[in-house]
Design goal:
The chain is an alpha/beta fold. The chain contains 7 helices and 12 strands. It is globular and about 50 Å long.
Length: about 290
């Protein structure tokens, strides 16, 4: 078994959710969605977990989340801060929005020398998703990958969501386009783009497999982003845009991995009871023990 790291993006506050949803309990013994992801990663053979958080809630995050992982998986932290910018650049006065998922991943560059899997801290991906990613890299793969989910399995009934809509050809990712306000309307799915969707389309849920060469690309492209959008208050350096750029320029192929696991997540407060119910179903089916750690 090769070394493989889990990189969890957990620095966001959850503006639509109305609180720090990464610390919100969804399991019967206070488990968070992050706990289920870490449990699944351990079962799949991951040996290190790095959490991207904000420095100001490090103590709370450790006490509520990572202290329970001692002896089960190595834990490290990376900190995403607004002023963590290259020399010569400053955060615009008054900006509060984080710089985006590409910037978040870049904060962990000094901690990773092996293949790694990136996930959102507030999304449940299912054990099979971690296993297919671990198996891919343990079998010698040295390129990028993405675990694809079906669009209609990733929507919320309480409002529009943002997803990376994917085009796939011969198990390779052809493009990924960040698409906002996706929601079910009858037999169709609508969005902020004038395209026809029926819900069967593959989407990215920010479950990406990478090798450390990604950090070279991120450094280069973050400079370009700051030159063009660094003075805007809500601009974001997003990993799907980075990947799409690499694909279209022919610099990196991205292999698409398939998982039949069900995805669910907490985007809005009203999503929480549904997620809790789905977790309980998995416990009843003995996929998870009632108490994870």
């Amino acid at each position: 078994m090769n070394n493989i790291t889990l990189l969890v993006m957990a620095a966001g506050m959850g503006s639509r959710y109305g609180g720090l949803k990464q610390l919100d309990a969804v399991g019967p013994n206070g488990e968070t969605i992050i706990d289920y992801s870490v449990y699944d990663a351990i079962q799949a053979g991951f040996n290190k977990a790095i959490f991207i958080i904000r420095k100001d809630f490090e103590d709370q995050f450790k006490s509520q989340i990572t202290e329970k992982y001692v002896g089960k998986i190595e834990v490290e932290f990376a900190f995403q801060e607004l002023d963590a910018l290259p020399n010569g650049y400053q955060c615009p006065e008054g900006r509060e929005k984080p710089w985006g998922t590409g910037h978040a991943i870049l904060t962990a560059a000094e901690l990773i020398q092996e293949p790694f899997l990136v996930i959102n801290g507030d999304d449940y991906y299912g054990g099979e998703s971690f296993k297919v990613a671990a198996n891919y890299y343990n079998n010698g793969a040295d390129n990028f990958s993405m675990v694809a989910f079906r669009l209609d399995k990733t929507l919320s009934i309480f409002g529009g969501v943002t997803r990376g809509l994917c085009a796939v050809k011969n198990d390779s990712l052809s493009s990924v386009v960040e698409t906002e306000n996706l929601q079910k309307e009858g037999n169709a799915v609508t969005s902020n783009r004038k395209i026809d969707l029926d819900g069967r389309e593959p989407v990215s849920m920010n479950m990406w497999g990478f090798t450390p060469v990604l950090f070279d690309y991120l450094n280069e492209m973050f400079f370009d982003f700051l030159k063009t959008e660094g003075n805007e208050m809500k601009s974001e350096f997003l990993i799907p845009s980075v990947i799409n750029n690499l694909i279209q320029s022919g610099r990196e192929p991205v292999h698409v991995l398939r998982s039949s696991a069900s995805w669910f997540g907490v985007t809005y407060k009203d999503d929480k009871p549904y997620v809790m119910g789905e977790i309980q179903k998995l416990i009843d089916a003995e996929i998870y023990p009632p108490k994870l750690f």
